[in-house]
Amino acid sequence: MLEIKHIYKTFNPGTVNEKRALSNLGLSLDSGDFVTVIGGNGAGKSTMLNLIAGVYACDNVAGSSIVLDGTDVTKEPEYRRARFMGRVFQDPMRGTAAGMEIQENLAMAYRRGKRRGLRWGITRQEKEIFHEKLKVLGLGLENRMSSKVGLLSGGQRQALTLLMATLRKPKLLLLDEHTAALDPKTAKNILSLTHEIVTRDSLTALMVTHNMRDAIRYGNRLIMMNEGSIIFDVSGEEKKKLAVEDLLKKFEEASGAELANDRMLLA
Amino acid sequence: MSFLLTMGNAAAQGVLWSIMTLGVYLTFRLLNFADMTVDGSFATGGAVAAVAVNGGMNPLLALLLSLLAGIACGAVTGFLNTKLKIPALLAGILTMIALYSINIRILGGPNVSLVNVRTVFSAVPGSPMGSTFLVGALTAALMVALMYWFFGTEVGSSIRATGDNEYMVRAFGVNTNTMVMIGLMISNGLVALSGGLIAENQGYGDANMGIGTIVIGLASLIIGEVLFGNRFNFVYKLCSVIVGSILYRMIIGFVLFLGLESSDLKLLTAIVVAVALSVPVIVKKFPGKAAAVNTVEKSEDAGADASK
Question: How confident is the model at residue B211, as a pLDDT?
Fold first, then answer.
């Protein structure tokens, strides 16, 4: 499904702020994989997702490539790659247009990967579809379809973004710490909603998280990143048996440093 | 001149200027792009129409030519911003200043007078004020209808969404650069059309006629918003732009009637914009009142813009 080979990313090359975010990264996902991604701050988790999404291009190194379902997207701009991908961001403000109605936002999402022309931006038939889809969220948003998204809470916006990202079944769902900005209870709800949607539609997904328990609980595969590479990759039964202590130990083994990140320990 | 006639003429002028304000509304409010091209493209529209009409062209066709010239101006700013990555404000200013030279080239001098030629206004029977009103109202109604339609379409929605949250729009497969480009082209097309109408109406095209256009546009926009509030749908918003433009001209007409020089107008316009923009700050200084106003607005309409 997704094939990443020899990816490098250096920010601010040639300056004092030069930072190598990814170093010879390789990753291969099978169709239907739900992969959780953990790692310390600056490990390159978000950078990896942004490179897959095309927010920025990877370093021009011979042999580096990003292939999605047989299509080489390495050189494609972000908006072109969007036909394959659904994305949910850490910042709830980022995934929706605050000044537009809930149904207008959904209509934008409904046209992901489609040609946009001079047809009407939202049809009556689509409104019915959106109504049904919103009902599933159980937040009562189906009765407020013409409300501006800016009036929704962070959790509601994130639920809506999740719905929008999966409205047209994506080949790959990218979740970049999409519950990190929410309170614990809301975060839990959004996570179980994520699990529900990913399982129901058998999506291939990459989910970055800071919470090791969540990383173990959800998905069928877990990867740990450090300094721009993958240092631990576990799946299937082995992953199910993991405990938080195992992950901490693994990290120390692989990196020779302690995964002393308050945010991760407290989470 | 009687007071009523002054006001009537001012209002009629306002309708012609409102087409320009629609363009400013598009970039500043829908696209969230502070486009300074306007000062140049307004004069370009005027210059093109004046020269074309003087050359014997059909006055309606001359206006179409103004519109096209404006679209080209917008494309230049769009190119500077989206392809060459020059910041929005500077991209607009560069085009504006370049257009000053180009406009003089088009005019073949600092200005061109229309003497004894047919204009869209002379083609309409009746008083000058009546024909100005009629032509202006027809054009404005047509433009409002076109804008209402266009911004309801898939492309139009994408332009609005680009102005709201470009990250989101890109994530859903829209080329935001193209949307900025289209928005700037339509906006400057409207502005130049307005310039063309003004040139035909006042009987001359002038390289300096565009100076301060952007500020006039903003003043009109803000007057409309203050009066109409922010809780109406798109058609009302477009109409508020038109009404704001008319009121702006009437305020100016009133002040002139009181005996101010027309050269004082730029100062006056700047003051109007500065005062209107500072209203939120002044309201904040009196938190009791502001809170009361806010709750009333919220309870009146749950769909009001949250950023307000």
Answer: 93
